[in-house]
Amino acid sequence: MEENELIEDDAPTVKSISIKWGAIGGLIGIIFFIILDFSDLSFSPVRWAGLVFPFILIFLAHKEFKKEGNGFMSYGQGLGIGSLYSLVGSIIQSVFTFIYVSFVNTNYITLARENTIIQWEEQGMSQDQIDQATPFMEAMTSPMAMLIMGIVIGVFFGFLISLIVSIFTKNQDPEFV
């Protein structure tokens, strides 16, 4: 009886797998952010390439969960792993970004605001429209707003990615169908 309990305790949990892979995702996100910033690509379309990482890492987290467990993973477990992964990774990345833009590269926010205004001009917004939108944009690009929005947006997109990845990685235990 004790032997079975030990085996079950060694089985991976949604939480343990999510935290591990979320930490890995957070660190990869930080490295990607730094590479973009140092290469002056932070505001270029290249930044969207970072969306590839959550797809890959959630897939790998699901694969590990099934491999280390009994080979099965329900859709709900997959969604849970991906969502918690996204929360952990987003918190790590957002806290780093907050510290980075507040103390390391304080010019980052100025560049982000200037870039936004340039995009608005390219979209044909009038100067009056830009003047009206600027206070809101400035509020949304403060370090604290970036921290909060980074977590919220990270979890939202992570959840959506998890919905997709879980469709392909689930392996329902026939015993529970």
Main features:
single chain; mainly alpha; 7 helices; 177 residues
The count of helical stretches stands at 7
Q: Proportion of β residues? A: under 5%
Order of helices and strands: HHHHHHH
CA-atom Rg in angstroms: 20 Å
Total separate domains:
1
Structural class: mainly alpha
Distance between the termini: 27 Å
Number of strands: 0
Helicity, as a percent range: over 70%
Largest sheet geometry: none
> What overall geometry do the principal axes of the alpha carbons give?
elongated
- Overall average pLDDT: 92
- Unreliable runs: 1-7
Report a brief summary of the structure.
It contains seven helices and no strands. The chain is an all-alpha fold.
What does this structure look like?
The protein is mostly helical. The chain has one domain. The protein is built from seven helices and no strands. The chain has helices spanning 2-10, 14-38, 52-68, 75-104, 107-122, 127-140, 143-169. It is elongated, with a radius of gyration of 20 Å. Residues 1-7 have low confidence and may be disordered.
Helix-strand blueprint:
Layout: H1 2-10, H2 14-38, H3 52-68, H4 75-104, H5 107-122, H6 127-140, H7 143-169
Helix pairs in contact: 2-3, 2-4, 3-4, 3-7, 4-7, 5-6
